[in-house]
Amino acid sequence: MVLTGIVVGLTGHGTPLAFICAALLVICTMTSAVVLSSAVPSNGGGYSYVKRLIGPRAGFMYLGMFVLSQVLIATFALGFAQYFAALVPNANEKLVAMIILTLATAVNLIGITTAASVQNIMVFCLLAALALFAIFGLPQVDWSNMALTAENIMPNGVMNFLQGVALLSFATGGAKFLAETAGEVKNAGKTVPRAMILSTIIVAVFYALLGVVASGVLPLDQVAFQNLTLVAQTIFSPTMFNIFILGAACCAIMSSLASGMTMLRYPLLAVAEDGWLPKIFKNRLFVFVLLYIINLIPIFLGFSLSELISMLLVPSAIITAVKNYRGMKLPEMYPEEWENCSIKCSVGLFKALMAISIVTSLMTSAFSMRNLTMTQAVGTVIMTILVFVYPKVRMSSGKVKIVSTTDMDKEEAAAAK
């Protein structure tokens, strides 16, 4: 929701295709997560899987990248504020972003059961409002502008189209968080990987339809780099417009904001159990308050949505490429788990998909870097380097002891110490 207007500015009428390409990119990049969640489901998701495939230090590096990427929570708060301003024009967007971030934190502090109930309600409202947007908007699309020609799909060139795809990989990539709680899901070996793939496809279809309406109703110069409010005002009556803003925009963003904070707790817990972080990181209150403070910083600094998302995509895509490079050896490293995996494919096909994932991950990082200023790019590189240096320092302190064996058997844990 928060990226559609930005991508319309980059890809024009190619926005629906960009959503589809982004979903394919996401499915490729999370190949190893899908297979691992099927073979060895565990809490801590990405951290646990990287630790198995590469080793404990790399596991922490992954988690460090993951934590850095959680500035994405600030993007949701800022996106919510932008849509809220469409209902209350004189609203202070920074203040609204701070308030909604506070509410999301409070919901998570109440407890995961309450948070899940709120999440279910918001997801229902989101899907209903998006369906209304498509139903009311598709009849008003100027289909003559939607022809699959290079001028329509890539009006600003191939590089901008690929940059748009990289940004949308963030919007369509939420399914990877399902792996973080696989250890608590019944029959996770079958349920989680299938849910990851199916939900990504469903999201891609919904957002592709949204992209058709967003780019096909009004002239591109009116909607480029704008949120969906202009198009919504055109296709809806005033009452329906308000329902859409509250139901789709606000609920979509609030849903993503709350779930993003919830999912981060599990890998942080696994890292704290292994000693990479102080024991206080096992405390739910501390974790959520820390996340709250971290995400207030970019709101105060006035970062744009596209800049924040690009900053998180650069390191996360790099670590995904490293993880999937090592993941190519999964069939040899864990032959029994590979044979029992509910997602069946030949070893050759699996390695080919992993190779594609590595290339696409590195491309995502490169195209995301293009969207940053020199200062932001340098800052991102410095933070990435620190994530690689910290585990060496922490390991030498003697405080790291591999004790979280939900994803490693006792022999593996002892060997990793």
Which bin fits the share of residues in helices?
over 70%
Distance between the termini: 44 Å
Low-confidence stretches: 404-417
DSSP strand content: under 5%
Which structural category do the helix and sheet elements fall into? Answer: mainly alpha
Total number of β-strand segments? 0
Written as H for each helix and E for each strand, in order along the chain, the element string is: HHHHHHHHHHHHHHHHHHHHH
Using the CA coordinates, give the radius of gyration.
21 Å
Overall pLDDT metric: 77
Q: Which assembly state applies to the chains in this document?
A: single chain
Helical segment count = 21
The description of the largest β-sheet is: none
Shape summary: globular
Question: What would the keywords be for this entry?
Answer:
disordered C terminus, mainly alpha, 417 residues, 21 helices
A few lines on this structure:
The protein is an all-alpha fold and 417 residues long.
How would you describe the overall organization of this protein?
The protein is mainly α. It has helices spanning 4-11, 15-29, 31-39, 45-53, 56-68, 72-87, 93-110, 112-137, 150-153, 158-171, 188-216, 220-223, 229-235, 238-273, 284-301, 305-327, 330-333, 335-340, 347-369, 374-396, 410-416. 75% of the residues lie in helices and 0% in strands. It is built from 21 helices and no strands.
